[in-house]
Design brief:
Elements: E1 7-13, E2 16-23, E3 27-32, H1 46-49, E4 53-59, H2 76-87, E5 103-108, H3 112-121, E6 126-132, H4 143-148, H5 154-163, H6 166-173, H7 185-192, H8 200-208, H9 211-219, E7 229-234, H10 242-251, E8 255-260, H11 267-270, H12 272-283
Parallel strand pairs: 3-4, 3-5, 5-6, 6-7, 7-8
Antiparallel strand pairs: 1-2, 2-4
Length: 286
């Protein structure tokens, strides 16, 4: 049985470097975390998936050990181009070489738009796509969500969140967690790590800059994405409502919508076995 424990890997890129955690053997499966999150969020589901796949859990550009993109352009098209460049080169870090072929990409939350943009850019490489509670132009942020994404809010919100006491971190994370008993001290520390960097606030601004316009532009291109797509949503998702997932699936040429009962936005955290089973069924052709 292949080693299912992740190894931290890095690869030099023209703009700096990209960091990821890798485990398992088999067909490549790339996991993309959500807004200002890191590969830490996949720590529970990754060993399960690594029993059958070669799993890459990325730290997206600007997060932890991954450098930001030139000009701080972190829109879906720019991130997709960076992912394609990474997958087309030495994808095994310092120990192996060669490109990744026939990749299944899993984009969660904010990274859903990156997964779709990559599928459109490189249909020869991205064979299947999973959008797990992903944002799109069908998602309409609440007033509070829109406020937190404002360019004049992020520069102070990110550092304040990074330095906040445990009780305040718990309060914020409880907004996206269904089972708050899982919010241990170590979990909260892991989620806030990606907010502690000196330029974390600028990274957040780069990802949120003109996001509505970027999502609308991608919406016009959905008809060009012909790969099988699974829109996977938690029944209790309070962050990105399931209805937006249904609309996204309906707008794609080859997609289906699946609702996971008893879980919310962070399906891979709260129900990792159920989440992994759905991924395996989809990748296997079910």
């Amino acid at each position: 049985m292949p080693d299912s424990q992740p190894t931290l890997m890095t690869r030099p890129m023209p703009w700096g470097g990209l960091q990821w955690r890798e485990a398992g053997q088999g067909a490549p499966l790339v996991l993309l975390p959500g807004f200002m999150n890191s590969s830490f969020c996949f720590r529970r589901v990754m060993p399960l998936l690594a029993r059958h796949y070669r799993v890459f859990a990325l730290d997206l550009p600007g997060i932890l050990g991954s450098a930001h993109l030139p000009g701080w352009h972190h829109d879906p098209q720019s991130v997709a181009a960076a992912l394609e460049q990474w997958a087309g080169g030495s994808a095994g870090g310092n120990t192996s070489s060669g490109s990744l072929a026939q990749v299944t990409v899993v984009g969660v939350s904010w990274a859903g738009s990156f997964a779709l943009a990559w599928a459109r850019l490189a249909p020869q490489r991205v064979s299947k796509v999973v959008i797990a509670g992903g944002v799109s132009s069908f998602f309409h942020p609440s007033f509070r969500q829109s406020l937190l994404l404002r360019p004049w809010v992020l520069p102070w919100m990110v550092p304040v969140s990074a330095r906040s006491p445990l009780w305040l971190r718990r309060h914020f994370l409880a907004q996206v967690w269904t089972d708050t008993h899982q919010l241990t001290k170590d979990v909260m520390k892991g989620y806030v790590a990606s907010l502690r960097g000196r330029t974390a606030w600028r990274t957040a601004m780069a990802y949120a800059r003109q996001y509505r316009r970027e999502w609308l532009a991608l919406r016009q291109q959905l008809s060009e994405i012909h790969q099988p797509v699974l829109a996977l949503w938690g029944e209790l998702d309070r962050v990105v409502p399931p209805q937006s997932g249904r609309q996204l699936a309906a707008a794609l040429p080859n997609a289906r919508f699946k609702l996971l009962p008893g879980t919310g936005h962070l399906m891979f955290e709260e129900q990792p076995a159920l989440f992994a089973a759905e991924i395996e069924r989809f990748v296997g052709g079910g």
